[in-house]
Design goal:
Length: 145
């Protein structure tokens, strides 16, 4: 199998080409940050935080960033790493989960609360900020004419 063909199959498997609900042992989590070596710190709807690993077949083909939602399956042999990534959620899969009442309500509320804070977080410091000052007194413009 060529590298391109393998990548195509891996992408189809990871990115929801089929819509199926999670199994009993699988759970939905939100990625908090990447820890390196294909490990990601995630949080559950309950607020528990732990590490998950990226399977070998997804490495160098799939990237997961902070704020993404993923479906994980627990692994038994891990002390620090407690689960492995099964699927990566996209907008269509999230919509499908919400329609079937599988989507955790905690993730909806946290997204609404975090949006104003996230807007302030990503400020480009390499460019000068323009500040516009407006005067409250309209007498200056009246006296000039």
């Amino acid at each position: 199998m060529s590298k391109v063909t393998k990548r195509k199959h891996v992408m189809n498997e990871a990115l929801w080409d089929d819509y199926e609900l999670p199994k009993e042992n699988q759970s939905l989590v939100k990625v908090l940050k990447s820890k390196g070596n294909n490990l990601h710190e995630v949080t559950t709807p309950n607020g528990d935080e732990y590490l998950v690993s990226m399977p070998m077949k997804f490495r160098k083909n799939i990237w997961v960033k902070r704020g993404d939602y993923i479906l994980v399956e627990p692994i038994l042999e891990g002390d620090k790493v407690k689960a492995e990534i099964v699927k990566i959620m996209n907008k269509d899969s999230i919509k499908y989960y919400k329609e079937n009442n599988v989507w955790p309500k905690e993730f909806d509320e946290s997204k609404k609360e975090a949006s104003p804070a996230e807007e302030d977080m990503f400020v480009n410091t390499n460019r000068n900020q323009m500040t516009v000052y407006q005067s409250d007194s309209s007498t200056n413009t009246d006296s000039d004419s």
